[in-house]
Amino acid sequence: MIRKTFVMHLYPGMVEEYAKRHNELWPEMKDMIHEHGGHNYTISFDERTNTLFGYIEIEDEERWAESADTPINRKWWDFMAPVMETNPDNSPVSEDLREVFHLD
């Protein structure tokens, strides 16, 4: 399993809406994440900076990267664009973090 950590940024005042949308995650989005090898997906929020911290375990980098081009993922990005910083294609502005410590 490969551990990925990353940061994204919410627009001010949007944490409740972000959480609501994720708590109501579409079944087809959940299926897509699992079909592309994603497991143990967690997103946390730092209220001081409007920063989201994501953690996901993936089976394969290439397989996971393919998930970005699925129609359901593109639809999700469009749905989430009003609440967070996005790129021109509505993908979230996301920065990978370097793991510096892990303990099983």
Automatic annotation (TrEMBL):
SUPFAM superfamilies: Dimeric alpha+beta barrel. The keyword Zinc-finger does not apply. One of its GO terms (cellular component) is cytoplasm. Its EC number is 5.1.3.32. GO terms for molecular function: L-rhamnose mutarotase activity. Keywords: Carbohydrate metabolism, Cytoplasm, Isomerase, Rhamnose metabolism. Coiled coil: none annotated. GO terms for biological process: rhamnose catabolic process. The keyword Cytoplasm applies. NCBIfam families: YiiL_rotase (TIGR02625). This is L-rhamnose mutarotase. It comes from Bifidobacterium avesanii. The gene is rhaM.
